[in-house]
Amino acid sequence: MRYLWSGMRACLDRAFDISGRGSSIPKEVVAGITTFGAMAYIMAVNPNILASAGLDQHAMVITTIASAVVGSFIMAVGANLPIALAPVMSSNVVFAQIVVVRMGVPPAQAFTMVLLGGLGFLFLSLTPWRRRIVETFPLSVKQGIHFAIGAFVAHIGIVNGGLVTKGGEGLVFGQLSNPVVLLALAGVFLAMMLKWARIPAAILLSVIAVTIAGLWVAHPDGSRVTQLPAHWVDWPSYPWFMLFPYDFHGLFANLFLVLPITLYFFLGDFFDATGTMMAVMQRSGLKDKQGQPLLAKSAFVADATASVIGSALGTSTVSAYLESLVGVEEGGRTGLTALVVACLFAVSSILWPLIICVPAVATASALILVGLGMLGSLPDLKSLAVQERVIPLFMLLVTVLTGDFMVSLAFGLLLHTAFVLTTRKWAELTLMLCGLDCVFILYLVLSSRLGN
Fold this sequence. Notes:
Elements: H1 2-16, H2 25-39, H3 42-51, H4 57-79, E1 85-87, H5 89-102, H6 107-125, H7 129-136, H8 139-160, E2 164-167, E3 170-173, H9 179-196, H10 202-213, H11 248-253, H12 255-284, H13 297-313, E4 318-320, H14 324-329, H15 335-355, H16 360-375, H17 390-402, H18 405-423, H19 431-451
Antiparallel strand pairs: 1-4, 2-3
Helix pairs in contact: 2-15, 3-4, 3-5, 4-13, 4-15, 6-12, 6-13, 8-12, 8-16, 8-17, 8-18, 9-10, 9-16, 10-16, 12-13, 12-19, 17-18, 18-19
């Protein structure tokens, strides 16, 4: 048995270059478990959102899990990066609440739009334009992406934990008389103390501890924070009627309505995935030969392929998850982390009733800790010229106030262009930069129109 394990360990190390990236199999497994724990909520949230568009909720649970398994597996094997994939939160809301409910587009046509957006992303990923676009982002915007996502992740954790609530004068601190708020604070303190003590899997342990404690803590309405399911195991049955749920005939009959929505899905998928993967890999410290975050073409191809397959399985846009940062914090550096996530999602198709009982307040500490860790690199602003430092800080401010990372990315790039024009650095005013500015302006216009 010992020789079998040694051979398996050597095989995994060669396949994923684990030692070469300064990691180990236990670290990768813990990172995968932690990442999965931070994003398992999508199994409950995504079906609820898509069900509001008239889709069967149980079917959406299975398609959500299936797309997460396939997407994370493709990223693990195809790109060897510690990035997990699943249906993303922004696109599912646009898909269900805006495209289907508000605009009256049938779900089959909406799935076709997701497919076309994914195919556009895949085509771009296979061409040299993808890398040129990524390299066009200046250092100030790259740092802004890092800070903005850090603030966004921490903001999600703070809100999920009830540590801040919306009041008459904006955001206010949660009521300390509320035991749920105290539980969230205890989780944050526990996670930080375990981290300071260099305890392995500190974030995961804090999530488990808060989940267990939630069995005895109640919300103001009397319901328990952690509610055990009626049954822990539910054998899955795949909704085959959701495979290839497309309607091309109806789609092209409404071409002028379809084009802007499809473009929205394409732009959102490409730039959201680009920003997320850049932030995750920048945090990992892995660099390519040019000293840039390790993001080969295969990573973008994997993300785009997952989005195409996700639409074929019957779910909204599948893309890289910010929660992958949690796994990177635990030492994840290779695709083995993503493979563990894929395996856990596969297992969850049977155990999902138990897994989704993990409350949002339990994952709050993980998100807050990761977000603060990213903001810890604020001293890196010293590497920028004094005039340029306002760009990443403005991106950080926009993200905190709006909770919209894509908007902050758009304004960051537009601000950089304004800086280039003002300081007359004509060599930096490339056609690619101007083209990206036009694309982001179009994105902002489309976002505004779809949001009204």
